[in-house]
Amino acid sequence: MRRVLILGGTAEARALAAELSGGSSGGSSGGGVHVVSSLAGRVSNPRLPVGEVREGGFGGADGLAAWLAAERIDALVDATHPFAARMTASAAEASARTGVPLLVLRRPGWREGPGDAWQRVPSLPAAAARLSEAATRPGDGPARALLPEVAAQPSGGPARSFLPGTAVRRGGGPVRVFLTTGRRSLPVFTGLAGVWLLARSVDPPEPPLPDHVHVLLDRGPYTVEGERALIREHRLDVLVTKDSGGPMTTAKLVAARELGLPVIMVDRPPLPAGVRLAETAAEAAAWARG
Ligand code: NAP
What we know:
Blueprint: E1 2-7, H1 11-20, E2 29-30, E3 33-39, E4 52-55, H2 60-70, E5 75-78, H3 85-98, E6 102-105, E7 118-121, H4 124-136, H5 148-151, E8 175-179, H6 186-190, E9 195-201, E10 213-217, H7 224-233, E11 238-242, H8 251-259, E12 263-266, E13 276-278, H9 281-289
Parallel strand pairs: 1-3, 1-5, 3-4, 5-6, 6-13, 7-12, 8-9, 8-11, 9-10, 11-12
Antiparallel strand pairs: 2-3
Helix pairs in contact: 1-9, 2-3, 7-8
The structure holds NADP nicotinamide-adenine-dinucleotide phosphate.
């Protein structure tokens, strides 16, 4: 029977495991395919895919290559999160070394639409630098500095019709940041002066945390109403997010658009050269079946 390893930790990986296992309640084998899903083992209570699951790192590309050979894997699907760049690099290297074909399953990234005020940055440190710049810039107030093109408009325009308590109406004080880039990214932001952080994550970040960091433990999916209420309650000025893509966490982007909140969008790390790409679980399943 054909043996497929799915590198998971995402909704797409779970959908693929279900599809290859012959339905969402199926076991680990279906349609002539035996599926093993792999999780990093970082989250305390992970959403599990159907079928066989292994947990924990492989020990880099060498470890993964050895595992693929030992388990007689015929096809490898990297369905990890778009920001899990180390795992993806290991998968590409192990595939090249062993000859086990690799497909990368990646949901499309988000696209800016009318009414959005996004600024794309190439990395988390670049996002922190942008916040720092805004927090220390004299003039109209720190939050306003994040929206230069909007602030320049004499009147009207979607982001000018601000509701009370959001960015353009604020004057001085710290930039109040809605940070949804994950708990492990927190150290990139905690040292910034003039910034207050509402950091939302699935699991608690490592203590100690400074006073200007407020942690909110939640895992979604989220609603636009809930995100809107959160932005208002905490008087947030700016949203910082990674371009994860997918429907599970778009509510914050809709709420930000409605409230005229600027968004600092961290771009995805590039994929290894030459990898084969699929955007849906169905596409990946057709490939994995061979
Ligand atoms: P990463 O930085 O690329 O990976 C770090 C190390 O963790 C890898 O080198 C590998 O260890 C191990 N690892 C990662 N994914 C694994 C998997 N599916 N199975 C076995 N080992 C895995 O990844 P990350 O950003 O820490 O993400 C870890 C996991 O969380 C991924 O599975 C990803 O899909 C999921 N996730 C990540 C994010 C995010 O924002 N980064 C968001 C949601 C879910 P070895 O080198 O020892 O093999």
